[in-house]
Amino acid sequence: MSTSEGHSTGTYGLTDAQYDEAISQTLRRIETQVDRWLEDDVADIDAARSGGMVTLVLPDRSQLIVNAQPPLHELWLAAKRGGFHFRLAADGRWLDTRSGEEFFSMLSSCASEQTRLTLNF
Q1: Which of 26, 27, 60, 86 is paired with 67 by a 20 to 30 Å CA distance?
Q2: Domains defined for the chain, CATH in brackets
Q3: Average pLDDT across the chain, whole number
């Protein structure tokens, strides 16, 4: 895809260290929220982390997979609704490379659809 195609996300050049830190913070935020839901008996979601990937197993056994893509400096989300690629914008938000939707908004929406609960990351 050339730079003139697709949605501009306002991404900027990151060093590998900056990317690694942003991914680490993002995955920690997901795990922390899932732990909070478990403690508060909101949703029974199992979060399993392996390196740069977090797999969320939802009550109906469906999954959401969040995966770091270091060579591309991207964050990927796989959900029932499809697969999505995000790049970090200068303002610190991960934005979908096609729609421009913010990562945590989309993750919340996908999790809510798949659990039939209102979940906000």
Answers
A1: 60
A2: 16-115 (3.30.920.10)
A3: 90
